[in-house]
Amino acid sequence: MTTETTTAHRAARILPQLIKFGAVGAVGFGVNLVVFNVMLLIVLRNVQHATIYSTIIATVIAILTNWIGNRYWAFSGQRQDNAAREGVEFFAVSLATGTGIPLVCVWISHYLLGMVGPVADNISANVVGLAVGMLFRFALYRWWVFSPARAARSKAKAETAATVGATTTTTAEPAATTGSTLARTPDGGLVGD
């Protein structure tokens, strides 16, 4: 296989997943926006620090929405059997890339480049930070949280455990048996499956 064919094949596999990932992210952004405003303007209207509480609640609900969308749609063929571990990893990646990367971008803009002001802050946090964070998030979801290699290892372990369990139950014989030994012999199939 040539390098061009390999690259085209990889792009053909990743592109649909990237589009689904983007769609899930857009839904998560909408959920975040709606929940934030509902919490801020209606539910927590008279609560001190309503902005902070609304941000936390909206972020957690948006991350949960994104996890469900990515788990059952964008990365559905690669999801892990251990949903709790996958959820914790997803949440950690989402917080690190959704908060950490924009903060680094703002810090670089402010302190290294000397670009201070609302426009520079918005560009560094909400354009550059969001774009770089999205690339890191996709990469970490694809190759760590929903890693195909981890999914394959998990399936192999489950199949091995099922095979060992089946072998143990089929080879274990009761202490007192009567009748033909042929009836107690496990059937290996036509080719020993």
Automatic annotation (TrEMBL):
<dbReference type="InterPro" id="IPR051401">
    <property type="entry name" value="GtrA_CellWall_Glycosyl"/>
</dbReference>
<feature type="region of interest" description="Disordered">
    <location>
        <begin position="160"/>
        <end position="193"/>
    </location>
</feature>
<dbReference type="InterPro" id="IPR007267">
    <property type="entry name" value="GtrA_DPMS_TM"/>
</dbReference>
<feature type="transmembrane region" description="Helical">
    <location>
        <begin position="21"/>
        <end position="44"/>
    </location>
</feature>
<feature type="domain" description="GtrA/DPMS transmembrane">
    <location>
        <begin position="20"/>
        <end position="146"/>
    </location>
</feature>
<feature type="transmembrane region" description="Helical">
    <location>
        <begin position="90"/>
        <end position="113"/>
    </location>
</feature>
<dbReference type="GO" id="GO:0005886">
    <property type="term" value="C:plasma membrane"/>
</dbReference>
<feature type="transmembrane region" description="Helical">
    <location>
        <begin position="125"/>
        <end position="145"/>
    </location>
</feature>
<keyword id="KW-0472">Membrane</keyword>
<feature type="compositionally biased region" description="Low complexity">
    <location>
        <begin position="160"/>
        <end position="181"/>
    </location>
</feature>
<comment type="similarity">
    <text>Belongs to the GtrA family.</text>
</comment>
<feature type="transmembrane region" description="Helical">
    <location>
        <begin position="50"/>
        <end position="69"/>
    </location>
</feature>
<protein>
    <submittedName>
        <fullName>GtrA family protein</fullName>
    </submittedName>
</protein>
<dbReference type="GO" id="GO:0000271">
    <property type="term" value="P:polysaccharide biosynthetic process"/>
</dbReference>
<keyword id="KW-0812">Transmembrane</keyword>
<keyword id="KW-1133">Transmembrane helix</keyword>
<dbReference type="Pfam" id="PF04138">
    <property type="entry name" value="GtrA_DPMS_TM"/>
</dbReference>
